[in-house]
Amino acid sequence: MPITFRTRLMAGAAAIVTAASLAACTTTSGPTLAEDQELAVGVQYPIENLDPHGASSQDAGTQLAAEAIFSQLVNTVGPGKFEGELAESWEPNDDASVWTFTLRDGLTFSDDSPLTSADVAASFERVLALAGPLSSNFKGFTVAAPDDKTVVFTAPGPEPALLGKLQLFVVTPADVDENSFGEPIGSGPFVVDEFVPGSTLRLVPNPNYWGEEPTLDVLELRTIPEIAARMTALQTGEIQVAWGMPDDQVAMLRENADLQVEAIETNAVMTMWMNSSTPAIADPAVRRALWQAVDFETIITSLFPETGSPADSVVAPTVLGYAPQEPVAYDPDAAKEALEDAGFDFSTTLRFQYSQPQFAEVTQAVASDLAKIGVKVDVLEKEQAVFLEDLLALNWDINIQMIGSQGFDAATNVGRLYPCAAHRTGYCNEELDALLASAGSTGDVEKREEYYAQAIEIIWNDAVGMYPMFTRLAYAWNKNVDGLVLAPDGRPGFASVTISASN
Amino acid sequence: MTKLLTTPARTRRSTRGLPQGTIPAIIIGLYVLVAVIGPMFVFYDPVITSVGDRLLPPGSVSAAGEPRPLGTDGVGRDMLGQLIYGARTSLIIGVSVVGISAVVGVLLGTMAGYFSGWADVSISRLIDVLLAFPGILLAIIIAGVLDRSMLVVILALSVANWIGFARLSRGIALSFRERPWVDAARLVGVPSPLLLLRHIIPFVIGPVAALATTEFALAILSEAGLSFLGLGLPPSSVSWGQTIAIGRSYLGSAWWVSAFPGIALSGLVISAGLLGDRLTARLTGDRR
C-alpha cells in the first residue's frame, strides 16, 4: 500500500485501488469483503470531549474524533497544497487579508438539515467566543456569510497561511452549545453511535456524508494508553489499527506476518530549546557548544532506527519555508574548549524538562553526553500540566518536544514561536523579528520562503535550540484492513476503509 | 516409596542441626555484603549512558570491551551495576525507615502504655486515624507532593510505618506496668523516664526486633513500589523499582531488564519475611 496523505477523494480511492491489486492473489476479482465490516482502532490518548471548538480543541483525542465526525473547509495534501472539503473553491484578495470561500452544493448535516455558510460563520465565531487554544490562531479575525454558499474571513492583517491554520477548524450546526456534543450532529463520514468519554467512541456511517459513504458498518476508537497493552491488542486482533509506537515495538511488529507496518514522514522536528534567558546559556557560543557535545547520530541510529533521521533545519523538508542548514557535527573536545573559551560556569546544573515518556531515553542519553564534557544536567520528568505551566513560564533550561508545522507552513512554527513577543524560547533578536514580520505580511510564496530561509539560518546558527531529528510516525494495521489513509498528524482517515475476508 | 518416607525424617534432622532462620539470615547477609563492598569492584553511574550498547542480552560484551554479564537496559547501562547499587539503595532505605519507625513507635507506644490517661488517649487516637489510611496511599501522597529525593522517600514510608511498633510496645508496656518489680521501682522513686528505659523497654526490644525484620521487608517493597510509580527516588539514583518500571516496555523483547531486579527484590523481601517469622516465634515466645 502506498503512503497516502490524508485526502478524502483522490488518495482514498487510490488506496483502495492499490489495495485491490495487491490482494488480487486471493481471488481473481479483487478482495472479497468480510461480512463484518467492523474496525476497532487502538488510540493512545483518551477522547474526553467531542466539542471541537472549545477548551479541548487542541487535544489529540478530540481532533481524531472531529476528523471522523465533522468536516473542515479545506485539507492539506502537501506543502502549500490544499484540497477542498466543504469548500469548493477559495480566493484570497491581493494582500491575503480577506479570504472568500465558496461551499459545495447540497451539503447537509447528519440530521438532514442543510449546511450553509451561516453554520460555518457561526462555528468560527464560536471558536473565537470560547477562546480555547484553537482561537489563538485567529486573533482579530471577523467572518461574514453574505449568501448561503459564501463565507468571507477577514484577518487584521495579511494572513497568507490561513489555509494551514484552518486545518483544525471544523464546522458544526449554528445552534450548538456545550450540551450538543454527547451525540453531535456533523457532516463528516461518521456519526456517533455511543460515546464513553475517555474510553470508547463507537461510530457508524453518516448517510448524508458529502463524499462517498463509508463501507464500514462500525468504527470503534478505543483508548488504550499503555503501549504494551495496545501492542498485545493489535497482535491478538482485538484492535486492527494502531499508531505512534516506539521504535522497539515497531521492530517487533514487523516480524508479525499478519500486520502491515509503515512509518510515514511527518512535519515534526525533535526540538530541544535552550533557554536563552538563562544567564549560563545566554551566549550563542555556549549553546552551539552544548549542541556540538551531543552525539545525536548514535542516539538516532540506536534509539530511533525506525522513526528518526538526522535533521538539517528547524522545520521539516515538507514544510513551506524549509531551508537546509549546515549540520552540527559531534565533537566533544571542541565543545569543551568552546565552553571554556566562552567562560561557561561548569558548576551550574541545567534543568532539562520533558513530559512524554517517549523522551525518557533520549533525555538520559543527552544528559550523559553533556556530563562527559563536565556539564551537569538534571533531567526532570514532569506531569503534563506542570510541564506546560513551566514551559510557558520559561522555568527550564533545556526543553524537549516534537514540534510540527500545522498546515505545512513555517508560519505556524517559526512564525508563531520565535518572535520576541512570543516569549517561548527566551531568545529575542530584532533582526529575526523583522524577518518574521515581513514573512507574515506578504502573500508572495517565493518571498515568504526567502524570509523564512533567512530566519531559520539565524535560529540555527544562534542555536536557539538543538534540532537533531526529523520524525516519522509508525502505523501498524492488520493486513485485511484496506484503504486506511495514513496521516502525518496522527489523524488517519477511516472513511475509505474496507475489511477483506481473511484468507 | 521408602525413599519418600525417609525424606521428611532427614529434612527434619538437618534443620535441627542449624538454628531455624539461618538460611534467610545468610541470604540477607549476602545482600548486605554485596551492597557494602560491591560498589568497590563494579563502577556504575546512572547518568552515564551508552545508547550504542542498548538492550544487550546477558553475557554480552559492550562496544568498549567491558563485560555485561547481566546485559544492559534501554539506554545501554550495565544491569549488574544497577543490581549492586540498587541493593545499596534498598538496604539504606529499609534500615532507615525501620530505624526511624522503631524509635518513634517504641517511644510513643511505651509512653502510651505506661502513662495511660491522656497520653494513651491522644496517641491511640492518632494511631487510629493513621490506620484509617492505607499506608502506601499516604506514602504516595507525601512522595507525590514533595520533590523526589531519598530523604522524602524515607519520611513518606516512615509516616505510616511507626504505627505497628507503637501498637506492639503499647501492649507490652500496658501489661508490664502492673508487674511487681515495676511497682517496686516506682515506690522506691525511680523517675519515670529512667523507669521506662530500665524496666519496660528491655522487654519491648525482643518483639520489636522481630517486627522490625518484617517491616524491613515491607519498607523495601514499598520503596520499589513508589519508584515503580515514578514517585520514589530521582532518576539520578538507582532503584530496583525504577529499573523494573523501565523494563516493563521491554518485557517482550528484553526480559532481563525487569527480571533481574525483580528476582533480587523478591529474594531479599522473602528472606527478610522468613527471618521475621522465625524471630517472632522465638523472641515473642520467651516473653511469658
CATH architecture of the largest domain in chain A: 3-Layer(aba) Sandwich
The chain-level structural class of chain A is alpha+beta
Please report which band the strand proportion of chain B falls in: under 5%, 5-15%, 15-25%, 25-35%, 35-45% or over 45%.
under 5%
Largest sheet of chain A: 7 strands, mixed
CATH class of the largest domain in chain A: Alpha Beta
Structural class of chain B: mainly alpha
Annotation, overall tally of beta strands of chain A? 21
Number of helices of chain A: 14
Q: For the terminal residues of chain B, how far apart are their CA atoms?
A: 43 Å
Oligomer: heterodimer
Radius of gyration of chain B: 23 Å
Which residues of chain A form runs of ≥5 with pLDDT under 50?
Answer: 1-29
Spell out the helices and strands of chain B N to C.
HHEEHHHHHHHH
Percentage of residues assigned to helices of chain A = 25-40%
The overall pLDDT average of chain B reads 85
Q: Largest protein interface? A: A-B, 22 and 21 residues
Number of strands of chain B: 2
What is the averaged pLDDT score of chain A? 87
Topology:
The complex is a heterodimer of chains A (503) and B (288).
Chain A: H1 10-22, E1 38-43, H2 60-69, E2 71-72, E3 74-78, E4 81-84, E5 87-92, E6 98-103, H3 117-130, E7 142-147, E8 150-154, H4 162-165, E9 170-171, E10 190-196, E11 200-205, E12 218-223, H5 227-236, E13 241-243, H6 247-254, E14 259-274, H7 284-292, H8 296-303, E15 308-310, H9 332-341, E16 349-354, H10 360-372, E17 376-381, H11 384-392, E18 398-403, H12 414-417, H13 430-440, H14 445-461, E19 465-478, E20 481-482, E21 498-499
Parallel strand pairs in A: 1-12, 16-17, 16-18
Antiparallel strand pairs in A: 2-9, 3-4, 5-6, 6-8, 7-8, 10-11, 11-12, 13-19, 14-18, 14-19, 15-19, 20-21
Helix pairs in contact in A: 7-9, 13-14
Chain B: H1 2-17, H2 22-41, E1 60-61, E2 67-68, H3 79-115, H4 117-132, H5 135-145, H6 150-176, H7 180-188, H8 192-228, H9 240-247, H10 256-285
Helix pairs in contact in B: 2-3, 2-10, 3-4, 3-6, 3-8, 3-10, 4-6, 5-6, 6-8, 7-8, 8-9, 8-10, 9-10
Signal peptide (chain A): 1-34
Organism (chain A): Homoserinibacter gongjuensis
Domain Solute-binding protein family (chain A): 82-420
